[in-house]
Fold:
Amino acid sequence: MSDPIVILTEEPLGADDRLNIERLVDGSDSSLLVLVPANTERHLLVDFLENLSMLDIAKAFRELTSHTPDPTTERAQASETLAVSLAALEGLGSGVTGEVVDGGAVNGLVSRVRETGASQAVVITRPHAVADTFHTDWANKAQDQLGVPVLHLYAGSGFIGDS
Structure:
């Protein structure tokens, strides 16, 4: 049996993401473990600058004035993201399982990679201009802690992040 592949995503996975993971699995019997963080730990100022850099000015100001998200609502959204993602990857490898992780997205990924003995980790995010530019994205943070390559894909595309 092949080593498991641990996948951390902040977005519900779809058809394009399935194709990318299918290419990674490449017919092997690797099991897939999908992780979705209960809280994405975004920061108000970083999000504001990121939305401005993506020319989404309305969203930048809307989120600037929004309230702190309710943890119960965040967990429910993470559970929905997990359900959609598991359905999208169904039938790949030797099976797909998943969980919502608490305590930080990167910490959850690093912990599960070490627990499972996975030799591959994948981070799937939407583009984050500030974090991606300064290499402070989840993939880079996980790679620094694990010492193994972490594939960084952008959700819904074939684009690879700079890890």
In short: The chain has a mean pLDDT of 81. The chain has seven helices and five strands. The CA atoms of residues 140 and 163 lie 5 Å apart.
